[in-house]
Amino acid sequence: MHELEQLGRLIVSQRKEWGEILSGFETRNKYIVFDDAGREVYLAFEEGGSLLIRWWLRALRPFEIVLLTPDRQPVLRIHRPFRFYFHQVQVRDAAGRPLGTIRRRFSVLRRRYDVLDDQGRVVYELFGPLVHPWTFEIRRDEDVFGRITKRWSGLGKEVFTDADNFGVEWPEDWPVTIKALLLGAVFLIDFVHFENTGND
Fold first, then answer.
1. Domain spans of the chain, in order of start
2. Theoretical Cys-Cys bridge with 165: which of 89, 139, 151, 160, CB 3.0 to 4.6 Å?
């Protein structure tokens, strides 16, 4: 995870295949993670999961996303168990050691998530302001330290696919474990709020 040490911003870009675009049938998600200079930092892909589960549960499906370096060395594993509302992901390093959990909180109008460390302590909150539906602020108390934002993908992508691009920014000097947790949050947010129209 040392790739994250000096980075203050990442872009997570979902990749769609033409078969999925034309048929509308949900396949396993794939992503490329870039730094703000456009260099490839990680490849990420959804592993396992049956065809029937993907078709039936769609964005609610459980998943395992694996992140690899460009030379195919595993770095992170992001596991999402099935939840109907209180969605969560567990983030582990390549050796399977837990780094922490992202867990959705109950909220009527706002989109809120807790960022928990490996001991289950809340270290940050992800807060989706009502007037900015594509933004999640990284907060502690009322202080904002960064944000996760769904970015415009271009007219063709937005009209013909549900492929998403996200920007995530945080202080450069933050520990890599916190950065890895927040990177894991991007995938959960994509599934819960943007994978299918009207899913939120």
1. 2-194
2. 151
**Spatial separation of the C-alpha atoms in residues 75 and 161, rounded to whole Å:** 28
The pTM for the full model equals 0.84
* Nearest Cα to Cα of residue 81 among 103, 67, 94, 63: 63
The alpha carbon of residue 14 and the mean position of all alpha carbons in its chain are separated, in whole angstroms, by 10
pLDDT at 59: 72
Quick one: tokens of 85? Answer: 């509302």
First and final C-alpha spacing in the chain: 31
For 58, the token pair is 């769609």
Q: With a cut of 70, which residues of the chain have pLDDT below it?
A: 16-27, 49-58, 152-163, 196-200
